[in-house]
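User: Fold this; tokens only.

Assistant: Input:
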Amino acid sequence: MKLRNKVLISISIVWIIFLALTYFNSKFFLLRSFIQVELARTDRNLGRIDQALDQNNNALYTFTSDWAHWDDLYAYMQGKKPDFIPGNINMTAFQNSTVNFMTFWDVNGKLMMGTAVDTDNGKFIAYPKKLQDFLYPNSKLLSRKDLNKDLRGYVLLPGGVMEVVAIGISNGDKTMPSLGAMVTGRWLSPLILKKIADQTKLNVELILPHQLQSDSHLNDIFKTISENKTGHSSENIDDDNLYGYSVIRDIDDHPIAMFRMKDTRSVYKTGVEAVRYYLTSFAILAVAFSLLMIWLLRQLVVRRLEKLNRDVSEISETNSLSRRVDTSGNDELSTVSAEINHMLSLIEASQEKLEQRVEQRTEELKTTNVKLEQEITERKSVEKELIIHKEHLAHLAHYDSLTSLPNRVLFNGSLNKAIEHANRHNKKLAILFIDLDRFKNVNDAFGHPTGDRLLKEIAQRFTAALRTGDILSRFGGDEFIILLPNIQNQDQINPVAEKLIETCANPVWIDNRDFFITASIGICIYPDDGTSLEELQKNADMAMYRAKRSGGGVLQYFTSEMNTEAHEHAQLETALRKAIQKGDEFVLHYQPKLDVKQGTITGAEALIRWESPELGFISPAKFIPLAEESGLIMAIGEWTLREACRASHAWQKAGYPPIKVAVNLSPKQFRHQDVPKLVKGILAETGLDAKWLELEITETAVMDNVDTGINTMLEICNMGVSIAMDDFGTGYTSISYLKRFPVSVLKVDQSFIKELPQNRDDMAIVTGIIALAHSLSMKVVAEGVETAEQMQFLADNECDIVQGYYLSRPLPEGKFLMQLTSDETTVENTV
């Protein structure tokens, strides 16, 4: 075949393949992107419907809350205002608030007043059928003893779906105990649906259970979105319209009905037009470019190559070594022609010499063949050694030297191949990023050789727990990563991950000692959570760190919200650093501590609060863990200690009775800072007497290094500062250690107080801690006291001091000082 034809055919084939790939990729990726945008738009519209429904429910909640905390209603429930019902329960009140149902119940579940209203026709009617299934003593709607826990949601009745709200009945400022429950209801009527449609500008329809039973397709969709985390789903009607669905759940979180929204597919139609325009334009440009390239190749290269080919062929056929080819021009082809002529001259000159040397070389070759045979034998031996050496080097380059597991390089290659396979066959795969919790403590306490043996044992356990085809790799340190190929859904991942956590949690026996270690696992799924190696590993690593922040020993799936949280985390850390530099964004609140026997406030716990000019009020539960993680807790803890001492001394100078102020020390601050020197310097700086300062230290801070922790506490106590063991009972303090600690106060964690006196286990634990503390000459502080029953139980069991919302929330300095000047009789009445 001629060169010209080869060039034409090659260019044509290449362009045809390129155009075909461009067409299919454009159809797949571009249209897929538009479809994803369309699905996101549908999900946002469904979210708007959910928000509008929640706003409607919130209006009913506001109405009910206003009534439930009406002092006149509270008096009526006490039997003091019998004219409350005829004076306030009328048709106008129901119609103005679109309320179809209102009842008042006492604490025993007895109905005090109730009525149902047809607001459309302005008349009182009978209770909705089946409503009594939700209203009975101790039911979810009527159990309203805790004034801080209201209930609102939906119930399914034969007449349709009804919004319900249940709130405990109390006085206006909720300082009195609940006398029962107020329950109101409102039908999701056509008028409410029209209001939602007008508010969202969407075509909305409510689908009830009887409609689902008569339509199997709708029933299948209802089952699907009931199991979906978002509660949303959509389906295409045709190329122009689609349906979106959103589930409605009742007060027991059971799916009872759903909304259906009809919307246009404008995004999809725009995508189809864009792909068509793009492909047409690209095809035209490709044809024009191909024609230009063929013409240029023909004019500049092909014609001259054909002539050179003819000249060389004639020289070869005639064996005319004296003839020369054309060398006109000044480019690569002219250079090639000149080289050909030079070669012809050399061949012509050396032809005679070549014939003379043939015989001589023949003899030399015979001798050389013998030597070659010997060299070949030696070379084969060397090649065999090189192959063995190469295999060893390949193993070192692709496997971990400690555990013999695939290393990062080999794993990344396997993962890329798995991604390509999954992409071609429309399959899924999962990445499990594993980090051993607190492994650094093993290396620090027992040395790296012990840590290496522990890693090898964990690697063997992980290998045994995996399925055939799963790939386990050590990424370095105490990090492992696992590839689970060919998965269908999350149900295939959970058993593997849980088995890994379980096998890791079993003790490891090394050098006559049990080592207990847990693993945190982050999981992401291709292609749901990422489509590239880097993205999958980054997201799995992000999920793993979420698992570690949850306490470790758990698995965590990646969610898109984690990227947002990571951004917010960085933003919050930047704001926290600026706040520490400025120093004027922090303030201390003080929570009073009540001496149970004396009925007086004898101390307070100083609690830091932060209000950022850009981010507003930031909860301590949010920024304190961040400060611990970033090391900023050192500066924050020092500021808190100095400010608390300064304030306490200022109160005494102003004439207020002296009280002991407690300041929390973080575990990191206690372990890594010269705490005795810091405390001594701040006391000298502020002028506060050491006996009015108390430092609260957690069990974990001391138990990491018991001897060092005891020495630090002894230095503090020798100054006259008292020490309290905070959150006692939640850590792992041994009784043998506790008697060595120079601690004067044990603080019972609020998790043991929360269910007193109903929980018999908590009762036993609290009474045991009180008895233990008193036997060791320690005082007991119960934190988190929120009810009179808890207060009474603690008083009956000789608890020394209490603090919590029942007594007072943490107060700004000004309001706290008012507590110090309050009449002691008021405190006793409150108790």
